[in-house]
Amino acid sequence: MKGFAMLKIGATGWVEKEKPACGPLDAICRPIALAPCTSDVHTVWAGAIGDRKDMILGHEAVGEVVEVGAYVKDFKPGDKVLVSAITPDWGALASQGGYAMHSGGMLAGWKFSNFKDGVFGEYFHVNEADANLALLPEGMDLGAACMISDMVPTGFHGAELADIQYGDNVAVIGIGPVGLMSVAAAAIRGAANIYAVGSRKNCADLALDFGATKIVNYREGDIVEQIMELTRGEGVEKIIVAGGDNDTFDQAIRMLKPGGKIGNVNYLGEGDTIKIPRVEWGCGMGHKQIVGGLMPGGRYRSEMLARLVTAGRIHPEKLITHKFNGLENVEPALMLMKDKPRDLIKPLVIID
User: Fold this and answer.
1) What is the C-alpha R_g of the chain?
2) Which member of 9, 32, 128, 350 has the lowest number of beta carbons within 10 Å of its beta carbon?
3) What is the largest distance, in Å, between two alpha-carbon atoms of the chain?
4) pLDDT of residue 49
5) CATH of region 155-292
6) Alpha carbon distance 345, 283 (integer Å)
7) Nearest CA-CA partner of 286 in 235, 328, 349, 351
């Protein structure tokens, strides 16, 4: 089989590999829709998780099952499936303790294009198929379905980590695809004012469509000053960090109320430290919490989020701005994510 791979830090290309083997609990799938992610960009060009040699990229897919292991009960060849980007080992102690995404070690529930070949190939392997796949709902848009792999669950996990409650004023920093889904999640969880921080018009327009009440454009002034003015100097109760860099936490702490919480789902791909302002953090005693987490992954979460789509409560298909056809177009789709033209939110590659 062929796949599009990270050859080494800073280099990508097509490779030939053996079709993956299927274990007794596992499944082999072929992709029917794929989406590249900014995480792929960090992995290749920033070396965020270290060097990888000839590792097939990609962790966002809708698939068709072509083979299942002897112990798989709920799936069979020919089934169209949602594929979670995070595929934990559900029997691990970390999973039993409530942190399935860290089963096998920190972030080790993230297997595709981290510890094993990803989904940008003619076939890909899914561990523990009954726990990590979900049936594709009949008639679901493939763009929406592919976003359930990562963008939707990651954005929603930001709202969970920030513990958004009814009536909270919320800032969402970064309104790329994950941040846009964080806006949608904050709205569903009952936030009052949702201040979406970003500058690109198409993202700002979609943020308003998803429930943001105000766009805060960092090109028009310091975002801390803007948020403090909008909240009459009080700050916000909750913040979701879905973009920015290692300095973003400095800004977030400054605009957060005492007792507030920051949920971070931004992948920090570079640098060694983050900056926390001492005084604004209450000299360490301001009860301003930062909680960063990898989304849990797995079947239950995929099915839960798919219900929100089929019920018309969220519309992740609106994230798709560029469409391609054919596996060979994974490469230009990924380069779009690397170059980030201003009309881009998310590309999608349809395989059939």
Assistant:
1) 20
2) 9
3) 62
4) 86
5) 3.40.50.720
6) 39
7) 235
Instruction: Supply 278's token pair.
Output: 């001492």
Helix, strand and coil in the chain, % to nearest 5: 30, 25, 45
Report whether 149 contacts 49 (CB < 8 A): no
Distance CA(23)–CA(69), nearest Å, equals 6
* Residues with Cβ within 8 Å of residue 225, at least 6 apart in sequence: none
pLDDT grade for 344, boundaries at 50, 70 and 90: very high
Beta bridge partners of 56: 5
Taking only the tens place, the pLDDT of each residue in 286-343 is: 999 999 999 999 999 999 999 999 999 999 999 999 999 999 999 999 999 999 999 9
Spatial distance between the Cα atoms of 171 and 239, rounded to a whole number of angstroms: 5
CB atoms within 10 A of CB 135: 16
Q: Residue 121's beta-bridge partner residues?
A: 3
Look at the domain 2-150+295-350 and name its fold: Quinone Oxidoreductase; Chain A, domain 1 (3.90.180)
Query: pLDDT tens across 5-15, in order?
Result: 999 999 999 99
- What are the tokens at 92? 């691990």
Domain boundaries, the chain: 2-150+295-350, 155-292
Tokens of 146: 């592919």
Nearest residue to 144 (alpha-carbon basis) of 135, 155, 136, 134? 136
Tokens representing residue 23 in the block: 């274990």
